[in-house]
Design a protein that fits this description.
Order of helices and strands: HEEEHEEHHHEEEEHHHHHH
InterPro entries: ACAD10-like, ACAD10_11_N, Aminoglycoside_PTrfase, Kinase-like_dom_sf
Number of domains: 2
CATH topology of the largest domain: Aminoglycoside 3'-phosphotransferase, Chain: A, domain 2
Number of helices: 11
CATH class of the largest domain: Alpha Beta
Structural class: alpha+beta
Radius of gyration: 20 Å
Strand content: 5-15%
Pfam family, one: APH
Shape: globular
Protein name: Phosphotransferase family protein
CATH architecture of the largest domain: Alpha-Beta Complex
Keywords: Transferase
GO molecular function, one term: transferase activity
Distance between the termini: 44 Å
Helix content: 40-55%
CATH superfamily of the largest domain: Aminoglycoside phosphotransferase (APH), C-terminal lobe
């Protein structure tokens, strides 16, 4: 089994000493439990802390685990209204630690595992979700030409491209037949709306646990995990938030199903979408069920890849990866339900 749990600290330390201004050891590393796709480590030195994010070693699906893209997009967003960690360096030489990696600032603050935000006040919950909404709208209003990202994704229909891509990825990692996924892929192709011309930067996995908030306020200090980012259609990000909220509360779901949102100071799906539309100056969103269904499909395909890596011995957290893989039929069924409205 390929080891994704540790780093060669001697190799990392030597590389950083030669390539990172101000770096000085000794170096300690601790692996984050999160970061299923690309193993992520906290690097501690006497002077400051960094974060290293690497490709998993081993045979990987084509175009997956693109740490070079993660590095590029976050570097481009520095100075915009989208908060990101400061990028330091990208190493694409597999000979250093066995796979490509990048190093960025460690951003201290609060990270909420799910939107319930257990133990927080209603005022905090309301403010954090509103900040999440603000950052999402800001992301979709980034001038991609001005920040040098106009070529970060191809032209043409985002959903046609994405459905084709994730269908191929799903087939490449398929371990057994899942009839619900087969049906969902057919339905998405049949019901794809016409391209409305919107072309923005999209995160691809926008949710509360991929954000760092200030320790004393609701201000977002960094959006993390940009592996799925591209130039595409903004409603996919918006729908991914709503998709997450439709999952069961706590544990593996980390959603809001069955939660009395008003009692906790949390907005309804409709209120969140309306606030987003107001920030972007949009009259509303037609055919939202399609965008929601697409997000369920994409997540199902991602989880299938996580399961395949676990079976192949390349998962960052094998036990959790096996559990996540069991949700593929659930996401497919939810995608079909979303299309039915």
């Amino acid at each position: 089994m390929t080891d994704t749990q540790t780093l060669d600290l001697d190799a990392v330390g030597a590389y950083l000493k030669d390539h990172l201004d101000g770096f000085d050891g000794p170096l300690e590393a601790t692996k984050f439990e999160t970061g299923q796709s690309n193993p992520t480590f906290l690097l501690k030195t006497p002077a400051r802390d960094y974060v290293l994010r690497r490709k998993p070693p081993g045979v990987l699906l084509k175009s997956a685990h693109a740490v070079d893209r993660e590095f590029r997009v976050q570097k481009a967003l520095a100075g915009t209204d989208v908060p990101v960690a400061a990028m330091h360096l990208l190493c694409e030489d597999d000979g250093v630690i066995g796979s490509a990696f990048y190093v960025m600032d460690h951003v201290p603050g609060r990270n909420f595992k799910d939107p319930v935000m257990e133990g927080e006040t209603n005022a905090t919950r309301t403010a954090v979700i509103d900040e999440m909404n603000r950052v999402l709208a800001a992301l979709h209003m980034v001038d991609i030409d001005a920040v040098g990202l106009s070529d970060y994704g191809p032209e043409g229909s985002y959903y046609e491209r994405q459905i084709s891509r994730w269908s191929r990825q799903y087939r490449a990692s398929e371990t057994e037949a899942v009839p619900q996924m087969n049906r969902l892929m057919e339905l998405l192709v049949e019901r794809m709306p016409e391209d409305d011309g919107q072309r923005t930067l999209v995160h691809g996995d926008y949710r509360i646990d991929n954000m760092i908030f200030d320790a004393e306020s609701a201000d977002c200090r960094a959006v993390l995990d940009w592996e799925l980012s591209t130039i595409g259609h903004p409603y996919a990000d918006l729908a991914s938030v709503i998709m997450q909220w439709q999952m069961p509360q706590g544990g593996m779901g980390r959603g809001l199903a069955g939660v009395d949102r008003a009692e906790l100071g949390l907005p309804s799906d409709e209120a969140f979408v309306a606030a987003y539309c107001e920030r972007r100056g949009l009259p509303g969103i037609e055919n939202f069920g399609f965008y929601l269904s697409f997000c369920f499909f994409r997540m199902g395909a991602i989880l299938q890849g996580v399961l395949k890596r676990a079976l192949d011995g390349n998962a960052s957290n094998p036990e959790r990866a096996m559990r996540l893989g069991g949700f593929v039929p659930v996401f497919a069924e939810s995608g079909i339900a979303a299309l039915k409205g």
